[in-house]
Design brief:
The chain is 34% helix and 17% strand. It is α/β, with parallel strands linked by helices. The chain folds into three domains: 10-17 and 261-368, Aspartate Aminotransferase, domain 1 (Alpha-Beta Complex); 32-258, Aspartate Aminotransferase, domain 2; 384-457, Orn/Lys/Arg decarboxylase, C-terminal domain (Ornithine Decarboxylase, Chain A, domain 4). The longest helix is centred in the middle third of the chain and has 18 residues, at 262-279. The protein is globular.
């Protein structure tokens, strides 16, 4: 039974460097007796005026937003609603290519035509860097019909972009800016973190409370400072969110927001500082924060890289799990991500550092990482919406080069597509994906028959 598995795991002593941000520590009790519905006196998430609206007001204060909407189906629901509220069917939208799959799903559902900018990789890595505001400016000049720009900042790896400049550029071109800030819910609580998207001028932002704050899984916020959008956002949330929101989740989010104590963030950021100082003594592993040229980085994301060493990120994650009882959030071919939060302990940070320094002594340097080559942006033949309406043929993935995909292919996590329906699959891409799979990365697809087969357009 799932319940027995969860119970057993909770007693296993494994240290969680992953979501949810509460790290399995209760900050409120969430029993069955509190699991209610919209009975008299308990407000309505889809038209809140009472106790639910009070939670949103608290969020507006903490996040410096005119309007905050409480979400119970993650940032995903907020992204779907925001994209629909900010566009009309058939619009052209500009996406940073490293957007999460929820953004692509919204684009398809809303019948939008996406154009992309692809941020450069951080030098010597296959990790997307910050978005270049000049590149965005140029693209918006080439695409004057775009009236919505969607970017991810911070990324899963904690890489931030210059939202202040980007929002000014968007405004100059008459476009709105939606920031997927799912990984940045903790930003307002310490000056040691990057500034929040709303404070930097984004029109709308979505934050997942559950990822980096002590709040139950699925809780999130949709934030805006644009008065004209408020009613539209509320209407679209009623389309995408359940009509039976969980009162347990909502009260869990409330407990989180009420407990955001700036002093505990000071302790937390001090622990992070100590960790980064100690990690400088590692000989083979490097932290992304110390590596690259990024506009800014959320140092709460410990991105430990194995570039240029004889082990993969997936192997490092396995060793941490098997020998040190540490579970990390994500393992890629050349790095792992450990998500930290205000609920992490000095013992947890020590355990991770000691484990890394022991493993670091057993690995050695190679030069293989210099050869990392990531595929460029694929050619787009149709929008994802048009692709959905094409006749589909299922073929072996190894024969897919130069065919037009009708499926997504992405590594999960982080859920950023390598190929989007309507795009041409290149041999470079199939080779790259094969390499990822052989280094243990979990590559998924919207095709149920993947990895053997993929759906392509029957042209
Ligand atoms: C960048 C990004 N945006 C959005 C989401 C969706 O967030 P949620 O899981 O809260 O629905 C994720 C999930 O991992 C993500 O990584």
């Amino acid at each position: 039974m799932l319940y027995d598995k969860l119970k057993a795991y909770s007693k296993s002593g494994v240290y969680p460097f992953h979501m949810p941000g509460h790290k399995q520590k209760a900050i409120s009790d969430l029993p069955y007796e509190l699991d209610l519905t919209e009975i008299d006196g308990f407000d309505n998430l889809h038209a809140p005026t009472g106790c639910i609206r009070d939670i949103e007001r608290k969020a507006e204060f903490l996040y410096n937003a005119n309007r905050a909407f409480l979400l119970v189906d993650g940032a995903t629901g907020g992204i779907l609603a925001a994209v629909r509220a900010m566009t009309s069917f058939g619009d052209k939208v500009l996406l940073a290519r490293n957007c999460h799959k929820s953004v692509y799903n919204a684009v398809e559902l809303c019948g939008l035509d996406p154009v992309y900018i692809q941020p450069d990789m951080i030098e010597g890595t296959d990790i997307f860097g910050s978005i270049d505001p000049d590149m965005l400016d140029k693209k918006l000049t080439e695409e004057p019909c775009v009236n919505l720009v969607i970017i991810t900042s911070p990324t899963y790896e904690g890489v931030c972009s210059d939202i202040e400049s980007i929002s000014l550029i968007c405004r100059r071109h008459g476009a709105k800016l939606l920031a997927d800030e799912a990984h940045g819910a903790h930003f307002p609580f310490s000056d040691a973190f990057p500034e929040s998207a709303i404070d930097c001028g984004a029109d709308v932002s979505v934050v997942s409370l559950h990822k980096t704050l002590p709040s139950p899984t699925q809780t999130a916020l949709l934030l805006t400072n644009d008065k004209d959008l408020e009613a539209k956002l509320q209407n679209e949330l009623a389309v995408f969110e359940t009509s039976s929101p969980s009162y347990i989740l909502m009260s869990g989010a409330e407990a989180c927001l009420n407990n955001m104590d700036y002093n505990s963030f000071e302790e937390y950021t001090n622990l992070l500082d100590d960790f980064y100082t100690k990690a400088k003594s590692l000989k083979n592993f490097r932290l992304l924060y110390d590596l690259g040229t990024m506009y800014d980085h959320d140092f709460g994301k410990l991105v430990i890289t194995t570039y240029g060493t004889n082990i993969t990120g997936t192997r490092l994650a396995e060793i941490l799990r098997e020998r040190f009882a540490i579970e990390v959030e994500m393992a890629a071919a050349h790095y792992i991500i450990a998500i930290t939060s205000v609920c992490d302990t000095i013992e947890g940070f020590d355990r991770l550092y000691k484990a890394l320094s022991e493993i670091d002594k057993t690995v050695f340097k190679t030069f293989e990482a210099a050869e990392i080559k990531t595929p460029g942006l694929p050619e787009k033949r149709f929008s994802p919406f048009e692709a959905r309406r094409k006749a589909k043929r299922t073929i072996a993935f190894e024969n897919a080069a130069m065919k037009t995909s009708l499926d997504y292919v992405y590594a999960y996590p982080p859920g950023i597509p390598f190929i989007v329906p309507g795009e041409v699959i290149t041999a470079e891409l199939t080779d790259y994906i094969k390499k990822l799979i052989s280094s243990g990365v979990n590559v998924c697809s919207s095709s149920v028959k993947y990895p053997e087969y993929i759906g392509v357009a029957d042209l």
